[in-house]
Amino acid sequence: MKRLAIVFMLFFALPASAEVTLSFYTGAQTAPHSRVRGNDGTSDFNFLAEWEGRSGEAPPYYGFRATWWKTDRLGFGAEFNHAKVYASDETLADNGLETLEFTDGINILTANVFYRWPNQWAKGKLTPYTGAGIGVAIPHVEFDNGGEETFGYQVTGPAATLIAGLSYDLNETWALFGEYKMTYSSNKADLDGGGTLETDIITNAINIGISYNF
Q: Where does the Outer membrane protein beta-barrel domain lie (predicted)?
């Protein structure tokens, strides 16, 4: 956490004269199976959860970021990503659960670094870029096994992201972009009935969005 705080301090200390890009995106997000371990206050559990993304259902999948470009190619920024996962009906039935989901967000806050190759094809309008970031997961944890229900936001552990995309300039101010985004989070949540729930979640997303440059 101290390292993350230092990264954010350096980020906000960047000179005001740097180029700034504000970006908003939505898209389609999925998540592979992951193992869920823990204790509900009375007994241990350990099972493989099948996750569903359901990106188009409310609350929708989305994210936004701000990037300060120190040079034409190198930028630093902060990002909030609202992904989500639901345990499948089969997973719930097989493990005696009524609810297991992170659906008001596996909210991921990261400090990012980006590298881009500006003014490439299409008469200099296309810019490929890559990025990576580290941060924290702040999911809305929903767990119900028929006893005490857990329902609320928690800081559950570290997170990281990898990004690769392509931006298309509409003019000097606005641009459209598409990208692949992978996010990893290590989550350890407290259960209201006592005990804990632990799971590592990876989300894979195809994002489309719009950027404003100034």
A: 5-214
